[in-house]
Each structure stands twice: as C-alpha cells, then as structure tokens.
Write a structure and sequence with these properties.
This protein has two domains: about 40 residues; about 160 residues, Four Helix Bundle (Hemerythrin (Met), subunit A) (Up-down Bundle). The protein has seven helices and two strands. By secondary structure, the protein is an all-alpha fold. It has a two-stranded antiparallel ribbon with strand order 1-2. The model has no long low-confidence stretch (mean pLDDT about 80). Belongs to the cytochrome c oxidase subunit 3 family. One of its GO terms (cellular component) is membrane.
C-alpha cells in the first residue's frame, strides 16, 4: 500500500534546524532540531503501522519512489563525507604533530564493534527475507547495542583527547568528520531500534517494506564511511 506522508517535511525541518544550531554554536537550537527530526522519523515509520500496511519495496518490478529516495540520500551523504575526507588528505601537512592517536587502542576497538554490527544487521536482513521475524529482531537488537557501544566509547575518546575542536586545522577536521559520522550512527541506532520494534509488531508486511530495507542500507553506508574515516583521518593524517 502506497502511503502519502507529510512526515518527511518534519524530518527535513528538523535537519535544517540542527544545521543552523551547529553552525551558530547554539546547543539549544541544535537539540530542538534533533528532537524535531527524530520525532519526524518515529512518526514516518510508525504511520504505516497505524494505517494498517507497509509500502512495498518494489512496484511492478522496479524500485518504489521511497526506495529510490533512500539510495539518492545515501549517494549525497557519501559525496559529503568524501569531500570532508579529501579535505583532510589535502591539508594533512598543516595538521599539528600533537594531534595524534594510538591506532591500536580506541580506533581499533570501535572499528571492530562497528564492523561487527554490519554482520549482525546482515543476519537480521537475511532472517527478514526468510520471514523469521524473531531471530531478525534479535540480530537487529544486537546491531543497536553495538552502535550504542560505538558512540559511548568514541565519546570517551573525545573526552580524553588532549586537543580540542579549535586546536588548529587538524583538530577542527577531526571533530567535524568524526562528529558528523557519530551523528549518523546515532540516527542509525534510532532507526534500527524502530525497525526492531516494527519487526515485532508489524507482522509479515515488514518484510516487503522499503523502509526496512532503507534502514539496513543506511547502516551499511555508515559502516563503509567509517572505513574511510579510520584509514584516512586516523591512520594517514594522525
């Protein structure tokens, strides 16, 4: 069933307010934008449950408009992250030598956690297509837990770093890139949590939903971006 929705407008408004708050350095505006955006995501996913059906992944053998929209969004976000990573490579000679981290400590740990979550979400995806909803929900829940561990450990790393956001070009780029990636991970955690709930409550219809597929595609995107962040920002630049 195709659902006409106004929730994407709410999500977009929340993102705009978040960017405004971040660029202005006003935490309250950023938090309001985050709340509006997340509320829009919850409403967008949940409306199918209320209306009694899920929009299918494909329409007459081709991807639905929603699925195509997810792919376009992932492509645009990939371009954004690649631009940030490329700027790090271009400006590496201006990074302060004091802005260094030990690759064998926190970066390696959180990389193992996040990449392992890619395995768990794939197992959840496979079980969804096999219509085994209980194990699918379990594996998606494992993904949520791993994402949470990633965010907590990375925040601990930021708290213990001896350089800050305003400590030279390197510090600014480091926190900009890892911060935006961390924000994407938080969004992915929320989306996977909602998917886990919908798998439990939504019955078999969830298997054909482009929203379920979109969440899984998004999480794989977050994993792949982290590989570039790890290799370029942590290893090459620092």
């Amino acid at each position: 069933m195709v659902v006409v929705s106004g929730w994407p407008i709410v999500v977009g408004l929340g993102v705009v307010v978040m960017v405004m708050g971040f660029s202005m350095g006003v935490v309250s505006i950023f938090v309001i934008g985050m709340w509006v955006g997340f509320s829009g995501l919850v409403g967008w996913v949940g409306e199918d449950q209320v209306k009694g059906g899920w929009e299918v992944l494909d329409v007459e053998g081709s991807l639905s408009g929603g699925a195509m929209g997810v792919l376009v969004f992932i492509f645009m976000e990939s371009c954004f992250f690649m631009a940030l990573v490329a700027s790090s490579v271009y400006s590496v000679e201006w990074w302060d030598s004091g802005e260094e981290v030990d690759m064998n400590e926190v970066p390696l740990l959180i990389s193992l956690v996040l990449l392992s979550s890619g395995v768990s979400v794939t197992l959840g995806h496979q079980n969804l297509h096999l219509k085994k909803l209980e194990p699918a929900g379990v594996w998606i829940g494992v993904t949520v837990a791993m994402g949470f561990v990633f965010v907590v450990v990375q925040y601990t790393e930021w708290s213990n770093n001896w350089f800050g956001l305003v400590d030279g070009l390197g510090g600014s780029l480091f926190y900009l890139i890892t911060g935006f990636h961390g924000m994407h991970v938080v969004v992915g955690i929320v989306l996977n949590f909602m998917l886990m709930v919908m798998v439990t409550l939504g019955g078999m219809d969830v298997v054909s939903s482009w929203k379920a597929e979109g969440v899984i595609w998004y999480w794989h995107f977050v994993d792949v971006v982290w590989l570039f962040v790890l290799l370029v920002v942590y290893w090459y630049c620092m």
